[in-house]
Amino acid sequence: MLEICDLHASIAGKEILKGINLSVKEGEVHAIMGPNGSGKSTLAQVLAGHEAYEVDLEKSRVTFLGQDLLDLPAEERARLGLFLAFQYPVEIPGISNSYFLQASLNEIRKSRGLEELDAMDFDGLLQEKMKMVEIDPGFASRAVNAGFSGGEKKRNEILQLAVLEPRLAILDETDSGLDIDALRVVSEGVNRLRSPNRAFVLVTHYQRLLDYIVPDFVHVLYKGRIVKSGGRELALELEEKGYDWIKTEEDAGVPA
Amino acid sequence: MATTITEVPVFDLTREHFLRDMRRLAEKAAPAWLVKARAEGAANFADTVWPHSKMEEWRDTNIGALVDTEYYSMTTLPRHTLAAFDTSPHRIEGWINLVFVDGFFDAAISDTSDLPKGAVAGSLAAAIAGPAQDLVKRHLGSCLGARSAYTALNTAFIQDGPFLYVPQGVELDRPVHFLCIATERQENVVSHYRALLVLEAMAKATVAVTSVAMGAGENHFDNVVEEIVLGDGAALTHCAVIDAGTTGRRLCTTETRQGRDSRFDSYSITLGGAIVRNQMCVMLGEPGAETHLNGLYLNAAAALIDNNLHVTHAATNCTSRIAYKGVLDGASRSVFTGRVLVVRGAQKTDSMQLNNNLLLSDTARVESRPQLEIYADDVKCTHGSTVGPPPPEIVFYFRSRGVDEKTARGMLTYGFAEDLAGRIPDPALRRQLDGIIYRRFSPGING
């Protein structure tokens, strides 16, 4: 579904991603872990099409559902079925959650030749999804993320995920700043959305999210490259030994 | 601060036109006090220089065009009827709609006002001719502060305009809508609306004044003076909606005098016009008075919109809030001046002002000038202003959800503007304005 080959990206002339290789198939859940500054969030943003990053198009190849992803602007990636849950969701004063999500869903439906949903049909769908991710129905009419707590913002990202039903969801540190209840709600939401034709990439610093959402694969990102890949046990090992273990090994020149 | 008279441009031709129409008006019968007031206005107009760009308050607002044009006063022209014009889109459902055409009340297309005993809503001309004459005489001109050429001009032509009187302790259960329509005409026409709104102590009302231009190609000039008197403990919600089309010109001076513990909630929304200057002066002259001035201006093409606010804190424990927002597109010019003056002894003043501007083009320009002048030492006053395009990180958030940049900017602009319109307490007016803003910025989005 997603094939990343030798992905290089930089910001303001500084190279952050230095040759990422990753293959994600339908139904799989991949966790990308790594110390601060390793490039995890950059990878998520680059895949979503953030233009602040400059991708080295000579070297890098990324295909998503058979299409050249790097060729597409952000909105077309989203319409194709790629979703990024932001680490820091932005506040949009004056635009209600339901208006925002309805516009978004209809853009995606339109691009697939589906009929747009009117306000009434959409409202029914939204109510159902809000129940699923345990969000108070009152949030529908509130401005997007405006004045939301950190946990509410993250939950709102999961609500968007539930409404937009992407093929690939990238969750960028969705667990950071969550208390244990919010973490449970977010994880349960994600688990309900797991399906054989939907894949997840979880970007996280901590192992604890993976207690709730059990990944099929764990990758460790360090200095812009994936230096270790394994199953769930790799995350547990990281929890036990900390990132210093990886850093020492890498910085000493031990091949990945 | 002194202006040298020698540098003042002279507009003899226009002045002659105005003076000619004043003489014609003087031939019509009117009460002696009104004849005297007009004559004073005419004399003041003759003595006062027309605003020009060397005056600090008019530095970025060139209204020379208003006196370069040969205007005909409606006093001397045949009046239009609006039989062929559908006013229904401009009426507000459930309100008392009172319609003015080119400056004069038109009873035939107005609702009959069913008001509590003693309250009057309608036309200043009718009030002058009827039992409310003493009220008018007592209050008219009582709010006008510093004399200016255009307010003097308005006074010289006092004839008609919105009139509201709410007696002590009375609350209007239905809001009043003054719908002022400029018709399409061959000539360049000037209408001197004179409005007077009086709320006695503890009275309460909601009022909207809508100014719309009919048809295209109109070249009208509204020179409006509106006086608002709020008694002790009175509360007025006042919404001004200005849509002067693409060529309409407008100078509007609103002067409000507030009594003790009174409250004024103002919403000023400018949707269009070639030259629009809204001057809003509030005198907080008694302790505990509170004023909330909210504004929205949607500026585009080559228009000039100037909002000039003066709030004077002349008593203790008064509160003022100014929140004006602008959406600037095309090669438009916008000016915002918010001057808050705290006089000596006006302790415990609480004042905040904010002017936010959303910039949609590289060629639009705005001058934003919040100003504080404080002569008391125990006060809380803040001000701020912002100017900028839609934040790129928000635009990216939209795009990451499948919404392209153009649509995102439209939705963001709608949200920016709607944030202000959404604060209007009356649901019918809020819906009407929301619809206008939505249609302007969110084309193609399925609501």
Protein model, in words:
The complex is a heterodimer of chains A (256) and B (447). Chain A has helices at residues 40-48, 74-80, 97-111, 119-132, 150-164, 180-193, 209-212, 232-241, 244-251, and strands spanning 2-11, 14-24, 29-33, 54-55, 61-64, 67-68, 82-85, 92-96, 143-144, 168-172, 199-204, 217-222, 225-230. Chain A has 256 residues and is α/β, with parallel strands linked by helices. In chain A, the strands form three sheets. A six-stranded mixed β-sheet of chain A has the order 7-10-11-3-12-13, sandwiched between helices. Chain A is globular, with a radius of gyration of 18 Å. The two termini of chain A are 25 Å apart. Chain B is an alpha/beta fold. Chain B has one domain. Helix content of chain B is 21%, strand content 36%. Chain B contains nine helices and 21 strands. In chain B, helix 2 runs antiparallel to helix 6 (149-156), helix 7 crosses helix 8 (405-421) and helix 8 runs antiparallel to helix 9 (427-441). The A-B interface holds A 48-51, 73-75, 77-79, 83-84, 86, 89-90, 92-95, 99-104, 106-108, 111, 116-119, 143, 160, 164 and B 391, 393-394, 396-405, 407, 411-412, 414-419, 422, 445-447.
Topology:
The complex is a heterodimer of chains A (256) and B (447).
Chain A: E1 2-11, E2 14-24, E3 29-33, H1 40-48, E4 54-55, E5 61-64, E6 67-68, H2 74-80, E7 82-85, E8 92-96, H3 97-111, H4 119-132, E9 143-144, H5 150-164, E10 168-172, H6 180-193, E11 199-204, H7 209-212, E12 217-222, E13 225-230, H8 232-241, H9 244-251
Parallel strand pairs in A: 3-11, 3-12, 7-10, 10-11
Antiparallel strand pairs in A: 1-2, 1-4, 1-5, 5-6, 8-9, 12-13
Helix pairs in contact in A: 5-6
Chain B: H1 12-26, H2 32-47, H3 65-68, E1 72-73, E2 96-101, E3 104-105, E4 120-123, H4 124-129, H5 133-139, H6 149-156, E5 162-166, E6 176-182, E7 189-191, E8 194-199, E9 204-213, E10 221-230, E11 235-243, E12 249-258, E13 263-272, E14 275-284, E15 290-299, E16 304-313, E17 319-328, E18 333-342, E19 350-359, E20 365-374, E21 380-388, H7 392-399, H8 405-421, H9 427-441
Parallel strand pairs in B: 1-7, 2-6, 5-8, 6-9, 7-10, 8-10, 9-11, 10-12, 11-13, 12-14, 13-15, 14-16, 15-17, 16-18, 17-19, 18-20, 19-21
Antiparallel strand pairs in B: 2-3, 4-5
